[in-house]
Amino acid sequence: MPITVPTTERFLDEVVLHTTAFADAVHAAGQEARVPTCPEWSARDLAEHLGAVHRWCAGTVSRPGEKLVRRGPTDPPIPESDDEVSTWLLEGAATLTQAIRAAGEDTLVGGFGALVPVSFWARRQCHETLVHRADAEIAAGRDPLTDVDPVIAADAVDEHLAMVALSAQRRPDLQADGATLHLHATDEGIGDAGEWVVTLGAGGPVIEHAHRKSDTAVRGPARALLTVLTSREHPEDVGVDVLGAADLLTLWRQQGGV
C-alpha cells in the first residue's frame, strides 16, 4: 500500500496548532524554568529558538532559487513579558505559514545542500515545532504531545529517520555491518505508514517502510516512538516495548536522537 504524506496545508495547520500549545507550555513553565531535554536552555531560550527558526524559514521560502543562508539576528527580537512572548511566538508561526502559502508548495528554495520544494519546509517546520512542543511540555511538568494525531506523529517519526539518514556522514557511529532496527507504531489506522526497518549499513542508516524480523524491535504509539527516538522520553516510561538488542536503540538515541 502506498504511503500517503499529509498535505502542505495540513502541515501548516499543525504548525499553528503546535505553536499554540508550545506557547501555552512555555507560559505555564515560566521563562526561567530549565528544559530537562535541552539542559543548557531555559524555557525562554527554547522559545527564542523556535520563534527565530520560524522567522528564518519564512525568509528562506521567500527567496526562490537561492542557497540556504545562516540565521542572523531575529527581527523583531523576543520580548520580555510572558504574554508578549506568547504573542511573538504565534506571530512567528503566522509569518511562516503565510510565507509558505505565498511561495507555493512546488517552488524551489534553499535546503540542506540542495534546492528543495517549499513543501519540504512545511513538513520540516511542522515536526520541528512538534518536537520542541514536547520539550516545553516536559519543562512545564506535563505529559508531552498527548493530543497529537497519530498520523502526524508517525510522519514525524518518518521525517526524523530521513533527516538522520541525510546526515549520516557526520554520524559515523550509525555506520555498521547491517544491524537492523524494526519500529512499529501500534496506533489503529496507520497501517504501513507506521512501520519501518532501519538498517545500519557501511554508508549509514537505510530506511524502509517494512515489517520483518530485526535485531531490535521497538513497539508503541507513534507519539511515544517519536519522543523515545528523539531522546525526549525513556521507552520504559511511555509504554514502548523494546525486544532484542536494546543497545541498538540506545545507540540511535545517543547519535540520532537530537
Automatic annotation (TrEMBL):
Query: Keyword Acetylation: yes or no?
Result: no
Q: What is this protein called?
A: Maleylpyruvate isomerase family mycothiol-dependent enzyme
Organism, by scientific name, is Actinomycetospora straminea
Taken from the record, one Pfam family name reads MDMPI_N
NCBIfam families listed in its UniProt record: maleylpyruvate isomerase family mycothiol-dependent enzyme
MDMPI C-terminal domain boundaries: 152-249
The answer, when asked if Isomerase is one of the entry's keywords, is: yes
Which key words are in the record? Isomerase
Cite the GO molecular-function annotations of the record: isomerase activity
The UniProt record lists the Mycothiol-dependent maleylpyruvate isomerase metal-binding domain at: 19-136
